[in-house]
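Pasting as-is:
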Amino acid sequence: MFNKLKAFTMAEVLMVLGIIGVVAAITIPNLKDNADEQVYVAKASKVYSEMETAFSRASMKYGDVNDWSGIDNNTIGTAIGGKMAKYLDGTVCGTGANAKCWTDGTSAINSAYKITLKDGAAVSFFNDLTVANFAGNALRVLVDLDGTGKGADTLGIDQFNMYILSNSTMSDGSHAVSEGDEPDTTSYLGWVIKYGNQDYNRCVSNLEWYSENTSCN
């Protein structure tokens, strides 16, 4: 007597393959997005570390940032960026609407002092502060991790703000937040460095600085 062998029918095989295809279509893009996010998280931390080191070295040479030569109305970014550039591995683009560097048609970017780092990141030191406004305030430095015109070009994804403070320190934006605050465009970089995610793009109303609510999970 022969035993009957049991096997899947063609319809059952096709059904299983269809289910696998649907699951893959849902999960693979999410896995790619997570991988891309972690690349940005790592690069943001790296670039900030490089900038912080350059600022520290420039401060050792030139002293208190308020005393650096060239600090004047609407040229503070050029004065600070020009001295930090000596300690950064990159190419100086200077100021103006330079097509070879960072230009997006806005006066804030076009008038900024711009550097392209060796890894392709673009850095703009804004020149929009008077000396009086700089005192007790902060100079904004905008970084595009992909370089100008590449990637998402979106704050909190591949673009981040960092700050030079008039008390001669550099900040990732966390200087401006208090316990319980939501992450925002000012503090996205600090959030990424401290908590290692960009979950503010998914569930910002559920997130709080210095609490247990630091991810969407």
